[in-house]
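Page 42, continued from yesterday. The earlier attempt failed because a stray header line got pasted into the input along with the sequence. Redoing it now with the clean sequence only.
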Amino acid sequence: MLTKRQNLLETIKGGNPDRFVNQYEFMEIILEMPIKFMCEPGTEFKNDWGITFRWPEGQLGQFPVHDAEHKVLKDITEWKKYVKAPVIENSDEAWAAAVAHANSVDRKDKFVTAFVAPGVFEMCHHLMSMEDALMALYEEPEAMHELIAYLTEFELGLAKILIERLQPDALFHHDDWGSQKSSFISPAMFEEFFLPAYKKIYGYYKDHGVELIVHHSDSYAANLVPYMIEMGIDIWQGVMTTNNTPELIKNYGKQISFMGDIDSGVVDFPAWTPEIIAREVERACRNCGKLYFIPNLTQGLNFSSFPGVYESASAAIDKMSKEMF
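This time it went through. Structure tokens are written below.
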């Protein structure tokens, strides 16, 4: 029986896996970093960039607050006045828990995985609102190029620390690039503004020993896959069924792999049942096949919004492995 790491590599390289890669099993994600990125349900917090996040009770996640009082970047043409990158804590004490976690992992079985969120596009709209960010791409492209370059330099500084501290085998990086039905911006605009940034960021990780780049975008982004390949993504995590995953595998499978096709919105809700999950898992596995595909809830970490859903999906994937391998 192959290790989780071996089975993953066989799957994404078109080899001979002996079972489906089961969701996030191949990644040991190191979250114990001195960088707060999420609040608890029913609370809010302000991060080191000054962005206020709020998670209302009864909702599935947090989002930045963009009223006049809380918006950080009030005028893109004066972004240098408003946007100040935080200093990343880099003491041994601050990173002790993360380093201990990384050192405890059997790297022959799993990939020690650094975690980064939010990404460059999300940072743009977190700072100023989605509406302002999308308008600025059209109305103030020069200022947006400058802001994106600034955010990219911050990410490269973070990458340096993550690599020095954790020696990660993989990177799990968040940046949502679309809605369920379309990308937020056109491919041409994505190529102009965000492709160069990610080529620098992911290129840095690859140049410094990181073997695997896993990018999360639980959205439609099929029209951006050629750019994902160009920037060095190995696995697109969060690929929704609206992307026609089997067609993506057929067209791009030898260059990039796809992790998802079990839409969280379809299976992860209060009235979920094992039968609903089993149906969606079987559909995904049979339609997408054994290679260049990892069945997975589209959610961006190894848990579900409602208790038991993630575990039920994992059990259903194991069942399909027994049937199909």
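Notes: The radius of gyration is 19 Å.
Reminder to self: strip header lines before submitting.
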